[in-house]
Structures are given as structure tokens and as C-alpha cells.
Amino acid sequence: MVTTLKPRHACVQFSDPSVPSGADVSVAAFLDDCHASALARFRARGDARLGCRTIEHAVAPKAGAAESTGLILAHVSPALCWAWQGATPGTPRQRRAHVDAELDLALTDLADQDMHGYLAVTEEQVELYEPDLVQLTHEAMDRTTFSHLGRRSDPHWEGTLVEQVRPPYLVLVLSIGFDRATPAGLAFDAQD
Asked: Is 73 helix (H, G, I), strand (E, B) or coil?
């Protein structure tokens, strides 16, 4: 049986069995759903290549706290990665490492904006917080060498998973591609 992929609407799900609604979803199922949604979103945007690059960024502990409050996971479209790498000097390995480091820098910037404070539980809260997350992601990407491409990113909030309530540990999942409204990206090295 072939499964048709389709983008999902951002939501918050729980895997912490200690909360009243506990264990709505397993961590693996949530991450698989978000990954499938990102792939469907990229295909719908015309990115014919399969796959995406996934970058995980652990959120640094808050002042006075001993542990991280979670992680931000970004699925980045192949078209965005290849265009960015194509505009970066060096060997294919150096270009890929540069893009990965710059994506990590953008996620660090996003984590510093306390994105884990955006714990939307209701549909109304998701609708309220999503534009802020998108805007902060645009700004974080623009503070990297991505801005040299002259294109706008197209971030989407795929979802948030609450793995633990006490102490809090959240997984924020984004997909980031190119905005359709900006001109075509730069050529890329197909060997990479």
C-alpha cells in the first residue's frame, strides 16, 4: 500500500504519561509524522528530489537551570540546501559543513528567542503563535549567510511534542524551504 504524504497543521501533542492526557503519541510516531509532512510540503513546492536535511539543535539551559528544556528540529528542503551550498566557496564537504553550521546558528538564535515559551495547546493558540514563529525563523535565517542568496525562507511549524511536563522538555519541529514568491535559487553542484 502506498501512503500519500500531505502537509499537516501545526499542533501540540503529549508523550508524557504523567499528565492527564498523557501519551497521546509516541515520540517516534510524532517525529515520523512531522518528517512526512515536511517532505510533502517540499514536494508541493516543486522540489522533486526526495529527502531533506534534518538539523537538531539542543536548547541551552535557561539561566539558573541545570538541563536543557528540549530541542528544535528543522527539516530543510533539498533545494534550499543545494542553492546555499552552491553559493558557498570550498569543496563539497566544506560547503555542506558551512550550511550545517549556519543552520545551527539560526536555530541557536531561534532558541535564544525562547521558542519553547510558545507552548500552544489549543487551536486558537496555534493560530496566534505561528506567525511569530515564522517571523522569528525568517529573522534567524537572515542573520546567516543565507541572506546572500537574495531569497526569502518559507518556514512552517510542523508541531511541538511535550516529552515531559516536569521538568519541561519540548521538541519543536519546523520545516524550512524557499518562499515561492522569490526568484529561482543559484545553481548548485549536483555532485554534492
From this structure: strand
Residue ranges making up the domain that contains 17? 12-58+78-161
pLDDT tens readout for residues 171-181: 889 999 998 76
CA distance 130 to 135: 9
Torsion sign across C-alpha atoms 6, 24, 31, 62: positive
Q: What is the mean pLDDT of the chain?
A: 81
For residue 91, being part of any structural domain is answered with yes
Q: How many domains does the chain have?
A: 1
| Residue 98 maps to a domain | yes
Residue 140 lies in a domain: yes
* DSSP collapsed to 3 states, 86-149: HCCCCCHHHHHHHHHHHHHHHHHHHHHCCHHHCCCCCHHHHHHHHHHHHHHHHHHHHCCHHHHH
Higher-confidence residue of 77 and 112: namely 77
**pTM confidence score:** 0.83
More confident residue, 23 or 160: 160
Q: What percent of the chain has pLDDT over 90?
A: 43
